[in-house]
Write a structure and sequence with these properties.
alpha/beta, 348 residues, seven-stranded mixed β-sheet, 14 strands, single chain, 21% strand, 32% helix, five-stranded mixed β-sheet
Length: 348
Amino acid sequence: MKDQPPEGLRYPWEDPPSEGAAIEVATGALWMRLPLPMKLDHVNVYALDDGDSWTVIDSGFSSNRSKAIWQQLMAGPLQGKPIGQVVVTHHHPDHIGLAGWLQSEHGAELITTRTAWLMARMLTLDEQAVPSAENLAFYRSAGMDAEIYAQRAQERPFNFSDVVTPLPLGFTRIKQGDTLRMGGRLWDVHIGNGHAPEHATFWSRDDNLVLAGDQILPSISPNIGVYATEPMADPIAEWLEACERLSTLARPDHLVLGGHKLPFTGLPMRMRQLIDNHHGALKRLLAYLDTPKSAAECFAPLFKRKIGPGEYGLALVEAVAHLSHLYQDGLAMRSRREDGAWVYQRKG
């Protein structure tokens, strides 16, 4: 079944580009798609025509299949012209995975935020054959299901180095308030947060295009999680602040080119939905905390659907994020259960 847009949104294209092909979404702006080996089975990438070269937005996982698709794209829709720049919206591997390959093998300049580059480079160097003691302790503190915990304790964890090619030394930094010329347009850089730290979005001054990465998606909400690397992070607060700030830029005619799903218009409505959805989730969660509960026991009020094994890890870190936000906001208290899990209960 095709995605149905939320009320007030419109999808100009019902179907995505086929593998190795592109759809021109505006003059000199191509939408392409690469596969992902997970439930969310794709990532969108874009190419902007700079005349004698291309600027590419995001890059997909590093895999032989993705490289082969890129070669098809370069020979086909990209007309054999070189890729001069690869602009990465944020550090997640489906977006930065082949950026190093585009640098080292194809001579592209990498442009991204400092945090995105530092995070990705650090994580590609941090290879673990089995989960670290800190990660296992974090799983226990979240109340992870015992069967899933036993399995994860024995297997190789997700490593950036498995799906991200090494990043050569050196990149060009962008930050809030910068402008960037790409595809014959001047773009304002506006930084988001929550889904990923210092996530770059790009707003064209010359027409209605917005390159949103995963900060703004149409029919799903980006995952917002807390991890063992920063267990007291509050990405929910950061997400809500970014959404409120970015919503002041939104126009109904903006064509939003996101990292997943379909391009859409109706951005003011979508920004309000994203904000309201998280406030609604927090309200439901707080009502649910009439007795002490761990993160693993809070899927029902947050997601309102059954969480399968493939989604369990992302659901768990998102539950931790919402509970920790309530705790840090002074609305809930927490204590350690005998099994090591933090359990949360609303105050009053």
